[in-house]
Each structure stands twice: as structure tokens, then as C-alpha cells.
Amino acid sequence: xxxRVCKGPAVIDVxxxxxNFCAEHFLRLCRDQVAKxxxxxxxxxxxxxxxxxxxxxxxxxxxxxxxxxxGYQADGLYxxxxxxxYSDSSGAFARAxxxxxxxxxxxxxxxxxxxFDIPTGARAARRAxxxxxxxxxxxxxxxxxxxxxxxxxxxxxxLDDEAAVxxxxxxxxxxxxxxxxxxxxxARDGFPRKVKPLVRLGERETAAYCVLRGIDYIVEECPMxxxxxxxxxxxxxxxxxxxxxxxxHDFYFGFLxxxxxxxxxxxxxxxxxxxxxxxCGAPTTGEVCAFCRLVERAAVPxxxxxxx
Amino acid sequence: xxxRVCKGPAVIDVxxxxxNFCAEHFLRLCRDQVAKxxxxxxxxxxxxxxxxxxxxxxxxxxxxxxxxxxGYQADGLYxxxxxxxYSDSSGAFARAxxxxxxxxxxxxxxxxxxxFDIPTGARAARRAxxxxxxxxxxxxxxxxxxxxxxxxxxxxxxLDDEAAVxxxxxxxxxxxxxxxxxxxxxARDGFPRKVKPLVRLGERETAAYCVLRGIDYIVEECPMxxxxxxxxxxxxxxxxxxxxxxxxHDFYFGFLxxxxxxxxxxxxxxxxxxxxxxxCGAPTTGEVCAFCRLVERAAVPxxxxxxx
Lengths: 308, 308
Description:
2 copies of one chain form a homodimer. By secondary structure, chain A is α/β, with parallel strands linked by helices.
């Protein structure tokens, strides 16, 4: 197995590219793919201040590292979600990464700052944990970026993530979600732009990137995610990718090229219906945004919430 | 396990409907679902002459049987594709069904009438067997219906088939295919309408229908299809359906309701580019249609064809 670039011994095969790479040229491939995504979708401009949403996992640490390697200015944001040992452990990986490199890591703790954790909040609001977690994260990312004066929030969503989300949206033909499933969401109403620079890398590649760069990350998946639909969609796509490498890439980028514009009006209609949340000012289609409603319900003792 | 309708002992559960049925009410469910599909999509009008494409498998025999039960006038068409024992055996099931019931079964034999079988034709044309077979079947169905003066060609595509085809089209975002993946294709240029009355039934249901009605059908899948992508798409969707019953139905009917119109222009553009095949007159986007090109190549001895 020889490196496509230098013909030296390869350490990894990337079937989607039908090629093998040595460590040096694999790391370059990863950086080049991120640079290409940033350029193709106008994600970041030189001099902009980026805030990377860091979970302590392979994707968010890889994207932070690559952005710095590419010369961008990027701080990290770690959200403590109160998911027991998992949160303790993932926070430690995020902090170690930042400390070793002398980077700025902003921290927000959901239990301390908002009085509830994800397991409790999900139960109180009768939401699936991943749903309560997702909306909390989106809200807190926005909030932290606005308060810190950042231009853009960076997340570590990779090709596998985006293909699985797309698959779920397509299975249910959620036109509004399809209309805004893009690698860049523009800034609006004082809320920062959101970008996904890893859309051209699979999760096997971000894991290999971290290993080869000596980046320690939390390997365990979030215990609350076990058995969720998103993982089922990933497995289904993995089975197809195994026999037809490149299918995920074609699915996601084919969507961006040839289909997403067909759903843009639906997302636009939803965007126009947005107004400021009466409680916090975040954009929402209702009176009060989903996060503030979650806070309100989660503040109620769990037992009381159940009886409502 | 009790029948949802009569509370008698049930013989089958249909998880998608979250219900169990006795034999009588399951058969009624199948007929009702077909009647609903016919009505919702204006597939057939009373008095029209239908030609059912019969393979000898569960789906085509079930749809033929149900159409007759619902009072429609329907003859069968069996295509001999020259796929060895499989064709001999499937033809015998189709003939037995027709003979026992005194029905008309039109027969067309690809080797006898056009000088090649599917394995040879696929090799000669360097096409995947399922691709050569599909285009041959479409051509010969059209041809037989036109010659026999039928108003409509009926095929036994079920919900599993259509969901898997849709999945393949979506994975590659084939806009023109998506624009014409409908349960009814209207008649044009003297070619008959094509309809799929089983789109509301899964393949487990059409199999159970045949068993309960005492219809003998060929259980084996076509040997040439083993390992094809379509089966991979079916497996992927089956894994999701197993944990979320109803997903396939939502995927397919959600597409028809909320997405297919977004691709209609692409299919329309292709339709407008159609002209008559210089050899046979069938609609084609080229000079000569794909079937006539296949005939031309397949007539060449296989060894010669390989060396081209």
C-alpha cells in the first residue's frame, strides 16, 4: 500500500478517493479538503474571529486544529451539558487540548448557568434527549458567539453526520429542513454565521487525523444517543458506502448541487416567520423560543413536570 | 393476536398499520389498498382494457388477481427473458395461474422473437443485466400493449420496490428520474398509460395475499439480480423500517405529496426531447432507442462483441 502522493509506505486508505496516503500526505489531504470547503462555500474570511463548538470528540478538536493550521483565528467553546461522567470526561479532553496549545476555551455550564442538565431537561420537557440537547447547544452557541463578538460559529459536523441528517430529512421530506441544510448558514439579526468546514471529511478520516496529530479525544459516543434514529441512518448509509464507496459524498454534494435550491422557498418562508423571543431575543417562530420554553419546564421539579 | 376488524383470530400483523388481521379481512385490506391507489391516482377507469406484466412472482400475480376481483378487465403478458431455469420456472407459474382461471396470457419470447437472451444481451451491450432487462421489459410491454390495443400497462411494483427505487434516485439526486417516479405515467404518442396499483402494499403483504388466496408463485428471486444495488437499497430501508414501521410509506408518499413536483420540470424537459426511434418508432432521446441499440449489439456473437 503506497501513498498516492510520494509513493512511500501508506498508513491509511481512503476508499472514497480510491487512494492511500502516508501520514504527512494524509494530514495535508485533510487540511486541503477543509480549505476547499471553506473556499467553495465562503465559510470564513481572513481576520474573522471564529468560535469553534468543542465537545472533546474527534471532529471538533480536528476542525479547531485544522483551522489554526490554516492560519485562522479560532477560540473554542465548551458546553457542559450535565451528562454525568461523559460530560466530565469530554470536558477534560477539551481543556487539555486548549491548555497544551495555549488556546482560549470559553466554557458555559448548563446546570450552573441555567439550572438544569440534559437528562432532566429532556424528561421535564418530554423531549428526546438528543432533541433537547440539540436545541440547547444551538442556543448557547449563538449566545456565546454574540456575547464574545465572534463573526462565526464553527461546528465539527463531518460528511457522515451531514449525510445522515440529509437522509433523515429526505425520508420524511421535511422541506423546510431540506431548504436550510447547507454547510453555511448566513448571519442574521445579530446572530453569527454558522459553518461546517468538515463536510468534505468522513468520521474515519477525522479520527485518523487526530491519531496522527497526537490529539487525545473522547472516543465514547454520548450515552444518551445510543439507539437514536440518527445512528440508524448512519448505519444504513454505511452499509451502502461499503459496497459503493463515494455514495455518501455524491448524496450530500449532489443534494447541494442539484436539489437544495428546490427547497429554498420553504426555508425562506420559515425564516421570514421568525421574530425575537419574548424572553431572550433569539429568533423564533413562536412567542417564546424553544430553549426558553425548555428552561421554563426544566426549572419545574421533574416529578411535578411529569404530572402536568 | 386479534383481527382489527372482526376481533377473530388474526393470521398476520401489519406493523405499518399497527394492526393484525384475519385472512378474510387481510384480503379485504389488500383489495381496499389497491382500490384506493387506483382512485387516488386515477389509474384505471371502468371498461378500460388493462395488460398486466406478469413475471410469475407474487407481486404480478397478486395485482392481476386483485384487479379481476375489483371487476377490471385485465389480460396478462409474460415475457420470456431467456434467464435459464429461472425463466422456465417463472413462465410455468404464470401459465398455470392463467390456465386455472381461464385468463388470457399473451406471451413474448425475447430469444425467439428478438434473437438474444438477457445474459447474452447484457454482455454484448456491456450493460448490467438488470439494466438490459429493465429496458427490454419496458420496450416489450409498450409494444405488446400497443399491438393488442390495451389502454394501460399494469406492473406489480410494490411499496418496497418504489421506496428502494426512490432511495437510489435520491442518493444520486437524479432529477429527471425523480420527476417521473410516479405511480402513473400518462399515455403519449400512442404508447399506453403505465400504472402501479400495488404502491400501497409491501412485499410481505403481497406474499401473504398470494398464500392466503392459494396462488402459487415463483419464490426465488431472479438469479441475475443477486448483489445488485437495488437489493442493497431495500436492505438499508428494511433496517430502518424494522425500528420505525411506516418509514417507507412516509418516504414514498411524502415524496409524492411534498417533493416530486419540484422535479417535474426536469422530467418534462426530457419528455420534450423525445422523438421516435428511427428503427422502431418508440419514443427516445437519441436517434435509435436503447432497445434497438441493444438488439443490434446483442445480435453480434458474444465473443466478437467483447472484442469491440
